[in-house]
Amino acid sequence: MNKFEFQIPNEEEVIIVEATINDKYELLLGFDTAATHTTIDSNVLFLSGYELKNSKGEVEVETSNGIVIVEIFELNVFESLGIRKENFEVQVYDFLAHGIESDYHGVIGLNFLRENKFCIDMRKGEITID
Q: What is the pTM (predicted TM-score) of this model?
């Protein structure tokens, strides 16, 4: 079992976790149990060495702000919370072009955690992954 501490957010903040792409590029992601898929900013993907023209296609996604179109990319290696995934598909969205400014670079969705048991302890500020 792995334990990860996080800063306990106030009512308007989210839990932030660290992640890496290809064992090299570090990013911060919101831990979003309401998100079905992991989504990252297209600018982060580009800076991680991926060509934006190499998308696997587009899909429509329903968000709290309505329907948006995202690109699908396969990352060679994606790691967070002690979980390592190879050939992991993520949704990619251009945050900046759509007026989204944030301290983090996307969200970890349930597709990343699907094979794991996890617990979020808000009193301790701790996530456990089994």
A: 0.88
Q: Are 74 and 48 in contact (CB under 8 A)?
A: no
Query: Which domains does the chain show, CATH number per domain?
Result: 2-129 (2.40.70.10)
CA distance 51 to 75: 11
pLDDT along the chain (130 residues), means of 10: 91 92 96 92 93 91 81 97 97 81 90 95 95
CA distances in angstroms from 69 to 47, 94, 100, listed in the order given = 21, 10, 15
Residues 96, 111: Cα–Cα separation, whole Å:
24
C-alpha distances out from residue 87 to 42, 101, 113, Å: 17, 28, 15
Q: What is the pLDDT of residue 68?
A: 83
Residue 62, C-beta contacts closer than 8 angstroms, at least 6 positions apart: none
Rg (the chain; Cα; Å): 14
Which of left, alpha, beta for 106 (phi over 0: left; psi -120 to 50: alpha)? left
